[in-house]
Design brief:
By secondary structure, the chain is of the alpha/beta class. The chain has six helices and nine strands. It has a domain of 174 residues: Vaccinia Virus protein VP39 (Rossmann fold). A nine-stranded mixed beta sheet has the order 6-4-5-3-2-7-8-1-9. The longest helix has 14 residues.
Length: 252
């Protein structure tokens, strides 16, 4: 049975409460640039713009995450570019800063190809995003032995009620299968609607989710509680009558 813990608050602050060397895998997708005001932080000028998670917030989070990762831990960081901030080079600007300033290694670069992208006028329609596979060590851990290429054809999620930019469930499931095993501790510091948590419950991984918006956290609670451990992997057996929420919603 998965141990699921959801935390309400700013991930940069909440990460101080996580023990060092305790996280096996991070799967996260910071909110898109120009996303909702629901992700504002603080009261300064930089934090009152309608810009989702700017570069410095992602950097601050990754800085805190470094010590929380186990020595062989992996970070799957999903970043799409936008036509604001640093534009189409935004994902590489973020990761270059993480590499040069914090010491992460880029083990792999996954291209998420969306076969149903949102059409864009006056520009080429963007049909892909990146998932950067980062670690403390130049050679990361992989739990799959079959041949797998790094272009994943996964349709954009149609969203769930209460959240318009839902992470497609197949993305965290695929990351979990490649970079973790049953019983590992998985963290999503930008949890949103809780899709990574749903995937962890289905694949029997432990999960910590952090979310700054209370409405989204409640949505995550509902989605994870309703999900079942039906996506059994690695020859494990679970009682599907248990909802798997052992320590849900620690509000700090």
């Amino acid at each position: 049975m998965s141990n699921i813990t959801l935390k309400l608050g700013d991930c940069v602050e909440l990460l101080d409460e996580i023990p060092n060397n305790s996280i096996d895998l991070v799967i996260t997708s910071p909110p898109y640039y120009n996303s909702s005001h629901k992700y504002q932080r603080g009261t300064g000028f930089h934090y009152t713009q309608d810009i989702g998670e700017p570069l410095y917030v992602i950097y601050d989070c990754m800085e805190k995450l470094y010590d929380k990762l186990k020595i062989d831990g992996i970070v799957c960081l999903n970043i799409g570019f936008s036509y604001g901030e640093t534009g189409v080079m935004r994902p590489f600007d973020i990761v270059q800063r993480i590499r040069s300033k914090l010491g992460y290694f880029v083990n792999d670069l996954i291209i998420w190809h969306k076969n149903n992208p949102i059409p864009i006028k006056n520009r080429l329609t963007n049909s892909y995003e990146f998932i950067f596979v980062l670690s403390k060590h130049p050679i990361g851990k992989y739990y799959t032995t079959e041949y797998t290429h790094n272009v994943w054809d996964i349709p954009v999620s149609q969203g769930v009620e209460g959240h318009s930019a839902t992470f497609p469930l197949e993305l965290p499931i695929t990351c979990l299968q490649h970079f973790s095993k049953v019983g590992d501790m998985v963290l999503d510091p930008f949890m949103g609607s809780g899709t990574t948590g749903v995937a962890c419950k289905q694949l029997n991984r432990n999960f910590i989710g952090m979310e700054i918006n209370e409405d989204y956290l409640k949505l995550s609670e509902e989605r994870i509680a309703k999900s079942s451990s039906f996506y059994i992997a690695e020859n494990t057996k679970e009682d599907n009558n248990d909802n798997g929420l052992k320590s849900l919603s620690n509000f700090w």
